[in-house]
């Protein structure tokens, strides 16, 4: 009897702890000073203070919060008429100053719009211009420095533009990858981010979470520490371009991946995910799936796992899941069915780290309109179809959920911001990959399984895959908003938690909640 009571108390404490860790807290609620906000941006500094920026056709409302989620000030600025049509690039918070970056396609100028939290004074400054031969790829922050990466028209050449002391400094690198410029202009129908003009590449940020939807593209860019990696995947190989911003070096490598079975199949696909210096690569034919982990710097292979349609996948944790639009799930018992469906869409792999474990998601993603056309490689005779989406990251980062495909809702463009990777249409304005895109004409399907890999031994770790932040947020929104989730949402990524802000349009009210990771 005593033992039963102790056991009951123990499990009750565990359950309470689990519920507490997954709970959300209401942090703030206030009415906006501006009306008809079209976009929301955000940034966070190294101390954990953060800012929300609400953009209308004529104004910006900048709301400062401290790390205890207390609102410090709320300022309304008039957008200078010279930049009302400029593209938004990013937001940075440093001390009492919030700086917003814009780009003019017409003048090629990069503009800073800075506001001081205490004085409310606004300063507009043009820090430099991009050459007309430079095609915009991405803008991002590394070590508190704002960078713009461009490709030179018609050349295998990358230029890194850094904002330093209110000036735009540039470094140009020749790239040994012979078809780099061509690759940047192809396969854009598979991007999550809407490309600029004819060039495009998806940015991945793994501060929070990624999934097979967020990682589906076969060309991705990763920025962390002093590093910029551009990764291009083909059925037979992965190409890696590495820029070190401190050493000002650019290197190129190519890794070849051959299959023991079906290596020359026309259905062969390959995709990868870079987690720091570890490349997680999946290669698949109708006869075999190979999952490999290697070091992109040392070329050392840590582990390789194999699967065939005739056998149970012995390195997976849990079941194979098929998830459709509206979060409907079913378990696939047949490995052959997984092979068939995965190869009929876009092969994908994502990696997230939980303590000492890499949680790997392997599967595929596809979307198609009701007429039967899709963006899968074997979609038939119809035209490829892809929803235009921008990352909407801001300085606070972005993230994806483990288990599903979701796209999020995100605010609509405004100020010509659709093509520059921050706050553009259709994305969840800072947290792509959390929710399905519910549409009467678009169907989405992901198929995936998880594998937990020990970060030291690179062997499979047995156990149950932990519930993802995506699932906890999704459950909260279902309970809070039912089927009327606000369209304008913004997320700030902090070290131990995220802050999600929801704009309730009917009341012009902004509500924020925190979720611990």
How is this structure best described in words?
- The protein is 9% helix and 44% strand.
- It is built from 4 helices and 30 strands.
- Strands 14-15-16-17-18 form a 5-stranded mixed beta sheet, with no helix packed on it. It has a 5-stranded antiparallel beta sheet with strand order 24-23-27-26-25, with helices on one face.
- A hairpin with a 3-residue loop joins strand 16 (227-233) and strand 17.
- The longest helix is centred in the first third of the chain and has 21 residues, at 2-22.
- The chain is globular and about 65 Å long.
- The chain starts with a helix and ends with a strand.
In short:
This protein is mainly beta and 517 residues long. It is built from four helices and 30 strands.
């Amino acid at each position: 009897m005593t033992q039963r009571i102790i056991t009951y108390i123990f499990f009750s404490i565990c359950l309470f702890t689990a519920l507490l860790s997954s709970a959300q807290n209401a942090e703030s609620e206030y009415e906006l000073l501006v009306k008809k906000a079209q976009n929301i941006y955000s940034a966070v500094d190294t101390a954990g203070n953060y800012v929300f920026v609400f953009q209308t056709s004529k104004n910006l409302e900048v709301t400062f919060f401290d790390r205890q989620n207390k609102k410090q000030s709320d300022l309304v600025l008039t957008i200078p008429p010279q930049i009302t049509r400029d593209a938004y690039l990013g937001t940075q918070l440093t001390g009492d100053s919030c700086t917003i970056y814009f780009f003019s396609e017409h003048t090629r100028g990069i503009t800073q719009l800075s506001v001081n939290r205490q004085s409310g004074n606004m300063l507009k400054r043009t820090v430099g211009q991009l050459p007309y031969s430079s095609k915009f790829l991405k803008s991002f922050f590394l070590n508190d420095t704002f960078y713009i990466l461009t490709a030179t028209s018609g050349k295998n050449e990358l230029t890194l533009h850094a904002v330093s002391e209110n000036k735009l400094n540039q470094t140009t690198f020749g790239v040994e990858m012979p078809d780099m410029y061509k690759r940047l202009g192809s396969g854009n129908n598979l991007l999550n981010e809407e490309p600029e003009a004819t060039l495009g590449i998806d940015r991945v940020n793994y501060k929070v979470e990624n999934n097979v939807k967020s990682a589906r593209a076969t060309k991705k860019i990763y920025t962390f520490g002093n590093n910029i990696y551009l990764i291009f995947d083909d059925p037979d190989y992965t190409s890696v371009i590495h820029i070190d911003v401190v050493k000002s070096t650019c290197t190129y490598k190519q890794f070849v991946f051959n299959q023991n079975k079906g290596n020359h199949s026309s259905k062969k696909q390959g995709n990868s995910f870079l987690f720091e210096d570890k490349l997680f690569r999946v290669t698949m034919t109708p006869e075999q799936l190979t999952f490999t982990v290697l070091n992109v710097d040392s070329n050392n292979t840590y582990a390789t796992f194999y699967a065939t349609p005739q056998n149970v996948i012995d390195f997976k944790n849990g079941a194979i899941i098929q998830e459709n639009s509206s979060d409907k799930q079913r378990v696939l018992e047949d490995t052959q069915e997984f092979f068939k469906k995965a190869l009929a869409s876009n092969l994908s792999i994502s990696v997230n780290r939980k303590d000492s474990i890499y949680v790997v998601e392997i599967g595929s993603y596809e979307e198609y309109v009701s007429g039967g056309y899709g963006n899968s490689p074997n979609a038939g005779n119809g035209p490829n179809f892809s929803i235009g989406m921008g990352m909407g990251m801001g300085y606070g980062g972005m993230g994806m959920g483990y288990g599903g495909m979701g796209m999020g809702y995100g605010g609509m463009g405004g100020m010509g911001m659709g093509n520059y990777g921050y706050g553009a249409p259709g994305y969840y304005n800072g947290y792509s990959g959390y929710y399905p895109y519910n549409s009467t004409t678009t169907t989405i399907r992901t198929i995936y399984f998880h594998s937990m890999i020990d970060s030291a031994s690179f062997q499979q770790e047995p156990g149950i895959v932990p519930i993802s932040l995506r699932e906890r947020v999704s459950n909260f929104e279902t309970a809070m908003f039912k089927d009327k989730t606000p369209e304008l949402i913004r997320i700030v990524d902090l070290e131990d938690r995220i802050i999600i802000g929801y704009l309730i349009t009917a009341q012009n009210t902004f509500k924020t909640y925190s979720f611990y990771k």
